[in-house]
Design brief:
Shape: elongated
Number of helices: 14
Radius of gyration: 23 Å
Number of strands: 5
Largest sheet: 5 strands, antiparallel
Helix content: 40-55%
Strand order of the largest sheet: 2-1-5-4-3
Order of helices and strands: HHHHHHEEHHHHHHEEEHH
Length: 313
Amino acid sequence: MESLGAFLRSRRDRVTPSQVGLRTYGTARRVPGLRREELAQLAGVSAGYYTRLEQGLADTASEQVLSALARALRLDEVERLHLFNLARRSSGPRLSEPPREEPHARVLALLNSLGEAIPALVLGRRGDVLAWNRTGHALFAGHLAHDAPKDPEERPSIPRMFFLDPRSRDLHRNWEELARIHVAYLRLTAGRFPTDARLARLIGELVMRSGEFAAMWATGEVADCTTGDMHLSHPAAGALSIAYQVWLQPDSPDHRLEIYTPNSPASAAALRTLADAAGRDDAREAGTAPRGRPEPSRGQPALAGPSFSTISR
């Protein structure tokens, strides 16, 4: 998990003296951004205190000091929130196992009310799929068992799918853009839930197993993730472009209902194709089992690639 000092260093390296009105007099500099003493001067604290803060040797920082540092580092609102979260964590308890995540009955009712016309997923704080409708399942992970989210130990993990499953890269035409958003949001989540041992293990696993995740994590970027566009090359529906939006849940503030709407008539037609297929799947389950090739059991993806355990917990 990220420390307060590491975040301060990454933000300090990003700000140049000219951006904050400091003159350098043409002298050679060994740092890409502000020196510690320059940032301390801008924030109105002593250089010694700031150095101890960045090195993790200061016990705490007041709200006034953190606000001054945020202004000097030109942090946006999300970065400022992350700074305060990290400062609170520095004196907080150690990692512990979080309680099992379960979707609230009201968000499941909302998900069911959407039917199959709109793809939708319910995500937990670490990006685990807590529930999805059939169209959402078909859009993003049709090679996995539809009932996989019901088992807390085998739930699909969106971050793992994104960085460890090559099918996810093949699906997303703007993979790199979305991957950076995933990493920046995961960093924000780590600041919000600093004692979550499962989250710490997830980040550690991705750093070790994905060079691209490790490189993106090292940039120190932090951002929220609420709306955006996905450009997909779906194996069944073809090329389509969709917009995603996040609905936060008052009953479970760290859970998110994500819905996906088409950006064009062609994309709308592609989603209708998936929705129609999802409706037929529901009808078959309600009646007799479908003929022909059976659906792969949990743990046995239909296509060659990583095992299900690779992209679940």
